[in-house]
Records
---
Amino acid sequence: MSFGLGHGRDLDPGDWGMDQKDLPPVDQGKWDPRRWFAHPERRFELEIGSGKGTFLLQQAPLEPMTNFLGMEWTNEFYRYAADRLRRHELANVRMMRANAVEFIRHWCPVGICSVIHLYFSDPWPKTRHHKRRVVQDQSLVDIHAALVQGGELRIVTDHVELWAWYEEHATRNAHLFERIVFDRPASAGEGEVVGTNFERKFRREGRPFHAMTLRRRETAATQGS
């Protein structure tokens, strides 16, 4: 299926894009995405489900000392986002076509992400598809491991049932995360929560938005490590 995002123009990820299939085999150990940047020592943030890359395109120029990695599974959206970033020559952003949950679980080193962004994720509304939702008990364990001490998982959705799912999982995993107020990014426009393409589309439809931030707690296991 084609979304026609390129409008007849070839989409070129260039050095800004990578496919999960090009990562080393899982049994060879972790793969540090920070090595992809000219300054791997800088603060690192990851976005799950970047879509067209609008959040990254808006936020990265405001934080030149932060490296951002966007992850998108749909190939055309991934290529479109990476092409946009390449054309804007943003040195502190990269895109990966990947299943972010798999990447965090199998490849991502422990304690490298200052923030993980999850904005307007697919709600997978049918009960039999709930297992495909990004937030699960196990994925929260994996996200907790990927975050630095005090790191944050920032979540926004328009979907009422998915919001209830997020609240349920946040409550059940309160030993891993402290729930705090969502702090809207500086790149969000007036009246916006984040300012992604999905938010702007849903705002025109009059949908309400829900947001939370889960801040990583230090657990007994991490204290002893």
---
Amino acid sequence: MRLSAVAALAAAGVFVAGTAYAAAPSPLPLLRPPGAGEPARFAARCVRCGRCLEACPYQAIHAAPLNAGREASTPFLNARAQACRLCRDFPCAAGCPTGALEMPAERKAAAMGVAVINEDTCLSFQGMRCEVCYRACPLIDEAIRIDYRPREGDAIHAVFAPQVIDEDCAGCGLCEQRCPVSDPAPAIVVVPTGADEAAYTARRNGEA
């Protein structure tokens, strides 16, 4: 085969791959380690050195895969698989050499995101007493509380509904990791800082 033909095939392959990548749905916004803050600030400072990955004692931080586009190799967490434990000394932030991860003043200031409950799939809102997310929260009774309310149309039983207090939620994802609901997504998910809540939860719930 002539060199020109090989070059043409290679170019065609690159074009097809590029077209397929462009047609693929964009990846969801990434859940960043504690102290990342706003996406633009983090992106400007993160040098993809991997220090935070090495520092995490629970191996919860990973490098984003190639299909993350421009965010490939940046640190992120998959809360459903292994959430952040909100270490009190924040070794991930302490190990960051560029300030991309700023040391939070307290655990609730980790500012990774905010947990959002899907009342249509949450067991507690269906009349069952679950409380798994509430018990899993490291900031129990601060970031997640239980709202005891009468069950509509039922004069005997009550609903023990979890409520997320946005300003106190660190976005660690332990609630998401422990949630017993899984199809199509956990009944409580963490929307990363800077992400659009409606769009993010719709995609997580298979609605978009």
---
Amino acid sequence: MQPNNLTPITPRLTLFCLMIGLGFLTACTTPPVTDPNASNYVPTAGSKVTVNQRIEVPGGQTRIFLQRGKLITRLSQVDQYWPNCNFEVNTLQETPRYIEPGIYTVTRTTRQEREVAFNQSAHIQLASLGMGDILARGDGTSLKFEVVTMRLASEQTPDIRELACRGVFTQPVWVSPPTLAEIRDALGEYASISVPEEN
């Protein structure tokens, strides 16, 4: 038999490796932002979205957009260089649906970065970031934006799905979620939002 040249793993070495691994995990964990005035704060679960007036979702669509306090029916009409939001319902129908006035509870919030790609005709295409997604402008520089999606629950409009709000699209180094003030500006008088951290 040949001698075993492998050094046995001692309990101290095992403990050391575990501590290093935990250190890396701790370094990668970012505590949630709790200051509503911070630029990277996003509304948390338990926030309330109050719809002040009936909002029509046109037939053949599931979303209605808001920007600078005005309703916009299609994404193609949204200024991507300015924060905007949209309400979304679950069911696609040919007839209009309505988001009724009332209080809608945020049950879950997610954040996601997305890239903006320009094809040869300069038409904007949006795609989720993922493995293998390489979307860029013709000059090789990509533009991104961050979207904050708030799942909603309500008895007034059971078919409602979410309120999603996007920051401006810009160079990757400048990407940030829409601020609470920008979300409120996008919603205008149609809706308002209150967050637990302000109470």
